[in-house]
């Protein structure tokens, strides 16, 4: 867990600490996250995610401190009001002005900030291109799909030139199809723009696609805060107990096997063969390996249809219940365990039968690998 630092001489950071009561609910949360990329606030309904975001926006006033890149927005002696905080806020509902065109909606926030002489770091043309809005500019928000409306809402928030973008369940009101439509655009924003994002969600799949850093909350308190991959591969955390527990890992396309339609993907500490063409050699990809798709063997498996069996070492293990054990293994055959960390959910019976334990060398068999990061089609 990370506590906010008193002063910020290190890498630019978002430092947040809020405590107080709202009715019967008590919030007491402190975390520090990088002031770049996407930080997801994740936890069950009612754990305080929206309250933290409202505190950051200055819409909810609780005791505490907030600073971004050393610039203090709140501490014991000061509280900057909402309208003086350079934030963009995207809610579950797009809340566009129905009587204005998409273009006028986009420029609404832009005029208010750039018109006041604030520097323009995010330009309209760039936002239109990144969010695929060029064909929607003259349309009325009334005639847009839910996903299109949210893309406009994100664009409007970005054009207000925020130091920090706050997104509160921006996809929660969308159906699966619209979510799949908008997610690649958000991934692209993340790749191209430098504005940091605090992203509230209770959808772990969404978080895994977008987030670099994770803040886990439960009942108004911090459970853990850290880089996504570190928290995903901690078998003691509640996200490892979710049925869909798994890890997302950076990978590089290493080659193709056209005869069998496979792509070779390099991860830290190992190479996988994955069905399909995942792009040119050298392309960076993000893949997801679910804990339930990984099994462990003491010896190199023979006579198996599973293509991927890689040497690894068990780093830690945690019983999940009476039946299952969650193990974290590091890929690679060295002793150091420095390769990518993968979760394996195995039965307690197999764990005992193979006398598995942390520190042991094993072979991980990986049954399925999903591509997480998708390309977006040009507008
Ligand atoms: N102004 C308020 N007065 C009283 N209770 C409040 C107030 N605002 C929030 N709460 C309570 O605080 C708790 C946390 O709410 P919050 O909306 O922050 O949770 P959340 O994690 O965002 O939940 P969800 O995922 O369902 O949106 C809830 O129990 C909520 O009822």
UniProtKB/TrEMBL annotation:
It comes from the Bacteria. SUPFAM superfamilies: MOP-like (SSF50331), P-loop containing nucleoside triphosphate hydrolases (SSF52540). It holds the Pfam family TOBE. Residues 303-375 form the Mop domain. GO terms for molecular function: ABC-type transporter activity; ATP binding; ATP hydrolysis activity; molybdate ion transmembrane transporter activity. Residues 11-244 form the ABC transporter domain. Keywords: ATP-binding, Cell inner membrane, Cell membrane, Membrane, Molybdenum, Nucleotide-binding, Translocase, Transport. Coiled coil: none annotated. Gene3D superfamilies: 2.40.50.100, P-loop containing nucleotide triphosphate hydrolases (3.40.50.300). GO terms for cellular component: membrane. PANTHER family: ABC TRANSPORTER I FAMILY MEMBER 10, MOLYBDENUM IMPORT ATP-BINDING PROTEIN MODC 2. NCBIfam families: modC_ABC (TIGR02142). This is Molybdenum ABC transporter ATP-binding protein. It comes from Azospirillum thermophilum. The gene is modC.
